[in-house]
Amino acid sequence: MVTGLHANKRKKNRLVSSFRFGFQGIASAASGERNMQIHICISVLVILAGFAFSITRSEWIAVLLAIGGMIALEMMNTAVERTVDLYTDEFHPLAKQAKDISAGAVLIFAIISVIIGMIIFLPRILAIVHL
């Protein structure tokens, strides 16, 4: 029975550690990455706009998925860049390609996120401007 308790405690400790490491990663990205800080600022503005314009539940889902996806993808891009930088200090075409592809994925998602934001907020903004 003691073995089972130890196994459960170890599993719980690993789970707690994985959450702690995740939060440390978020904090590291938020405090040290300019692009992440930009995404967070824009996200706060979009969330405030969502409340101001009383967007619908389904619009909130789209906005939150766009925000969460953008932040997560930016963090993955940072992880790819750090890994490549750890591997080599010298220019290497494959290292450049890995970084460029990762940045391209972020760019695609950013464009899609802006389009989602325009679909949701532009009609409301135009309705106010035309009053």
Strand content: under 5%
Mean pLDDT over the full residue set: 92
CATH architecture call of the largest domain = Orthogonal Bundle
The number of distinct helices, counting runs of at least 4 residues, comes to 4
What Rg is obtained from the alpha carbons, in whole angstroms?
20 Å
Q: What is the fold named in CATH at topology level of the largest domain?
A: Helix Hairpins
Q: Please identify the structural class as seen in this structure.
A: mainly alpha
Number of strands: 0
Question: Poorly predicted ranges (pLDDT <50, ≥5 residues)?
Answer: none
Query: Main β-sheet: number of strands, strand sense, barrel status?
Result: none
Taken from the alpha-carbon principal axes, the silhouette is flat
Proportion of helical residues: over 70%
CATH class of the largest domain: Mainly Alpha
**SSE series:** HHHH
What is the first-to-last residue Cα distance? 72 Å
Q: What's the domain count? A: 2
SSE blueprint and pairings:
Layout: H1 2-32, H2 34-52, H3 57-87, H4 93-129
Task: Describe this structure as you would to a colleague.
The longest helix is centred in the last third of the chain and has 37 residues. The mean pLDDT is 92. The protein is built from four helices and no strands. The chain is flat. Helix content is 90%, strand content 0%. The protein starts with a helix and ends with a helix. With 131 residues, it is mainly α. It folds into two domains: 32 residues; 96 residues, Helix Hairpins, CATH 1.10.287.3610. α1 packs across α2, α2 runs antiparallel to α3 and α3 runs antiparallel to α4.
